[in-house]
C-alpha cells in the first residue's frame, strides 16, 4: 500500500493500522471476500500484480465479484476457473474448511504458477473469506528442470545399457575368436 499505512493513518485505530500493515507486508496476493464473493479488501501485492499485468479494472478490484469473474473466464482455463469458484463457494457455505489449488497463470511473455488457498477468516461479525495467491514459479521451474534432467538420465541409462549389451557381445566374440585362434595354434603345433 502507500505510505499512509506505513506512517500511521490518523483515521485508523492501532489494531486497524496493524492489520493493514501486516496484510501489505505479505508476498502473497490477498483478497478478502464477503459472503457473496465480492472483494472488500486487497493487499499491496495484489494491487502491484494487477498494475504490472495491466488488469483492465481498478488494481485493488474492490467491489468486483470474484466468483462471477471466475465463472466468466473463457478459453483454456475456463474449467479450472469454474472449479476455483466452486471451491470458494464451498468454503463460503462452510462445506469445506479450505480450498487449495496450484494453477498456471501464464502471460504471452512469462510462464508462472500460483498456489491458491481459500479459508474463512476467523473473527466475529459477518462472514469473510481470505483468498491468497502465492507465486510458486521458482518451485515449478525447478520441478520442470528436475523432470527434464530425469528424462535425460533415463535416456543416458538406456544408452549405457545398450552399450553394455553391445560390449558383452563384442567380448563374447573376442573370447570365441581367441579360443579359435588358440585351437588353430595348437593344431599347427
Question: Using DSSP, what is the number of strands?
Answer: 5
Radius of gyration over all CA atoms, rounded:
30 Å
Ranges where pLDDT stays below 50 over 5 or more residues in a row are 1-5
Largest sheet: 5 strands, antiparallel
Shape: rod-shaped
SSE order, one letter for each helix or strand: HHEEHHHEEEH
First-residue to last-residue Cα separation: 99 Å
Tell me roughly what share of residues is in helical segments. 40-55%
Number of helices: 6
What average pLDDT do the residues reach? 87
Q: Pairing-aware structural class of the strands and helices?
A: alpha+beta
Strand residue content: 15-25%
In order across it, which strands form the biggest sheet? 2-1-5-4-3
Could you walk me through the main structural features you see in this protein, from its secondary elements to its overall organization?
The chain is of the alpha+beta class. Helices cover 52% and strands 16% of the residues. It has helices at residues 3-6, 14-25, 44-52, 66-71, 78-92, 137-188, and strands at 29-33, 39-42, 98-104, 113-120, 129-135. It has a five-stranded antiparallel beta sheet, with helices on both faces. β4 (113-120) and β5 (129-135) form a beta hairpin. The longest helix is centred in the last third of the chain and has 52 residues, at 137-188. The chain is rod-shaped, with a radius of gyration of 30 Å. The model is unreliable at 1-5 (pLDDT under 50).
